[in-house]
Amino acid sequence: MEKWIAALRAQGFKVTPQRRVVIEALQTGGKFTTAQQVLEAVRQKFPEMSLDTVYRNLSLLVEIGLVHEVRTKGREGNVFEIAVAGHHHHTVCLQCGKAECLDFCPIHEQDLARAEGGGFKITAHSLEFYGYCAACRQTG
Ligand SMILES: [Zn+2]
Ligand SMILES: [Zn+2]
Ligand SMILES: [Zn+2]
């Protein structure tokens, strides 16, 4: 928690009580947490908090690199994970929405150099692999 607060302050953001409970909800929410799950957790302390506010706080945390957002394309919406593992990518099941972390980055230096061809400077990238997990492949 202290690390988060320091990171927020370092980038000039206030650590409001609402922001604090969003972070707490992510920390206790398990590996992948949906915005809805965060909302349910924060409403125990702030019953008037809206899903919009949760999303705004989550986007901020994603922007400053404390949280990863995984686009699951599922009914539940994107899931969020605490960015402890450093830069990495995910596989996402199109049927059940389950996400898994990959411990490697398949993007190579030379790919980035090619993408920067037109004078564009790349500072970050994100990438998800979509398909069907082992369990869904068996039942499907
Ligand atoms: Zn699945
Ligand atoms: Zn991950
Ligand atoms: Zn990568």
What's the layout of helices and strands?
Elements: H1 2-10, H2 17-28, E1 33-34, H3 35-42, H4 51-63, E2 67-70, E3 79-82, E4 89-93, E5 99-102, H5 109-115, E6 128-131, H6 134-139
Parallel strand pairs: 4-6
Antiparallel strand pairs: 1-3, 2-3, 4-5
Helix pairs in contact: 2-3, 3-4
The structure holds zinc ion (3 copies).
One zinc ion binds at residues 68, 81, 85, 88, 90, 101.
What does this protein look like?
This protein is of the alpha+beta class. It has a single domain (2-139), classed as Winged helix-like DNA-binding domain superfamily/Winged helix DNA-binding domain (Arc Repressor Mutant, subunit A, Orthogonal Bundle), CATH 1.10.10. It has helices at residues 2-10, 17-28, 35-42, 51-63, 109-115, 134-139; strands at residues 33-34, 67-70, 79-82, 89-93, 99-102, 128-131. The strands form 2 sheets. It has a 3-stranded antiparallel β-sheet. A hairpin with a 5-residue loop joins strand 4 and strand 5. Bound molecules: zinc ion (3 copies). One of its GO terms (molecular function) is zinc ion binding. Fe cation binds at residues 87, 125.
